[in-house]
Amino acid sequence: MRRRTSLHRGAGRLTRVRSTSCQTTLLAAALIATLAAIGGSAVCLAQQAPDVASWVGERVIVRPGAVLLVDGKPIDDEVPAKNPARGKAASRYRVYKVEKVDGSSFLLTAEDSGAKRSVEIGEVVRVARTIEDITDLIDATPEDAENYRWRGLIRLDRDEREKAVADFTEAIQLDPLEAVYHASRAIAWSEERDERAIADFTEAIRLDPLEAIYYTSRGLAWKSIQEYDKAIDDYTEAIRLDPKRGLNFSSRGWTWSSKKEYDKAIADFTEAIRLDPKNGLNFNSRGWTWSRKKEYDKAIADFTEAIRLDPTDGFHFHARGRARADKKDYDEAITDFDEAIRLDPEHSSAYNGRAWMWATALDDKARDGKRAVESAMRACEINEWNRPDDLEALAAGYAETGDFASAVKWEEKAIELLGEDREARKPEFRNRLNLYRDKKPYRQKPSP
Q1: Contact assessment for residue 4 and residue 42, using Cβ atoms and an 8 Å cutoff
Q2: Scanning 3, 50, 83, 428, which has its CA 20 to 30 A from the CA of 298?
Q3: Would you say 410 and 388 are in contact if contact means Cβ atoms under 8 Å apart?
């Protein structure tokens, strides 16, 4: 039988979310990681394929909510940093190697730490055949809703949203009173800012009104459609239910920031840091807010602490690069953008930030139109030419080279891509378009 686990447990997605300047993406990843760790209703496990002996030596992952054993005793993975059984919460499922078959269990060794664990055979699938193995489990016990949710989570991780929704819907049909199945489907809707996410999170809350993570998740969905006050109400309720979880404060902090209530945002991020001082994202979040207040030295200090905590995450270097560029410390900014790109060659925001600085810096020595165009082009390619800010950086680069016809072309395309949720930004885009039509490049505004 499978136990139902707490929502505050560790396992996460198979692959790390690419670092971008969008904090909402990272908050969503943290929520997905939490939801992925929940086990649903207890059911009898299906037997794995009969040739389990052939699995020895295979790389495997463990089902969310599965019971891992050490010397026959279950491991509580509520604090992943202190428990080597499940690894880092927000980055991936932990990968194990099957050492041997022991009756109805596999003996596993964690790839990253060498930790030895035991788990029932039906609770693992091979990394090389993840979807196929879960499908085999579904075929063996089609009444087990948990297997549909597991496959849905894997498909969501692979950006197969429609298939993920179908799996979560099947899980709901099999067990409509299990809140986590509604919440899982809501996460899939949320990735496309689909308002059906609100309905699913609301149903999860109705079924389990004391679970804080559902309020945090619905708050993120409200924020994504700019219903900031409703989002803050949900985050505040999550804080009431779970006042020791930093994610609840950081989520509310980003909503305060969206409302331009920066002091309230900083207060929430500071509390998140107090509760989770080893989480670099909390320092990063507060750093962005200091930047919006134009307190760049404080921002740089927070980004530097985030880098100290997680020196392999290009997101923090990109953020510090932005603050340094705004402070007009151009050489240091380029160093940070370059490091972000070295750590993550697909880091589009770092290419964008570097391009914008090369195109628009006040210091003549810092500008380089040709390199700005090249860097902006790379950002556009990574985001498949669908991000207005990338096209605008490209336009600014062309303007700096004196190719104002191309600058006008790409600025017009950037404006076309601005949706209703970015209507407020159109005037600044049009102002730059008018500059390029007058054959004038754009320059950053001097610091006050």
Answers
A1: yes
A2: 428
A3: no
Any residues with CB less than 8 A from the CB of 174 and at least 6 apart, and which? 143, 144, 145, 148
| H/E stretch holding 337 | helix 330-343
Res 70: pLDDT: 86
| Collapsed DSSP state (helix, strand, coil) of residue 2 | coil
Write out the two tokens for 371. 């390199």
Neighbours of 3 (CB within 10 A): 11
pTM of the entire predicted model: 0.80
Nearest-10 crossing angle of helices 246-258, 262-275: 170
Is residue 444 within a helix (H) or strand (E), and if so which, with residue range? none
Structure token pair of residue 348: 């589009």
**CATH 1.25.40.10 at 23-208, yes or no:** yes
* Tens of pLDDT, residues 250-270: 999 999 999 999 999 999 999
SS (H, E, C) 144-193: CHHHHHHHHHHHHHCCCHHHHHHHHHHHHHHCCCCHHHHHHHHHHHHCCC
Strands (E), 2-143: 59-62, 69-70, 73-74, 96-102, 105-110, 116-120, 124-126
**Token digits of residue 347:** 């880091």
Minimal CA–CA distance to 73: which of 88, 85, 60?
Answer: 85
The predicted-structure confidence for 144-182, as pLDDT tens digits, reads as follows: 999 999 999 999 988 899 999 999 999 999 999 999 999
CB 133 within 8 A of CB 125: yes
The reported pLDDT for the residue numbered 39 is: 56
Length reported for the chain = 448
Strands of 73-74's sheet in order across: 73-74, 69-70, 116-120, 105-110, 96-102, 59-62, 124-126
Contact 275, 249 (CB under 8 A): yes
Is residue 265 a contact partner of residue 253, using CB atoms and an 8 Å limit? yes
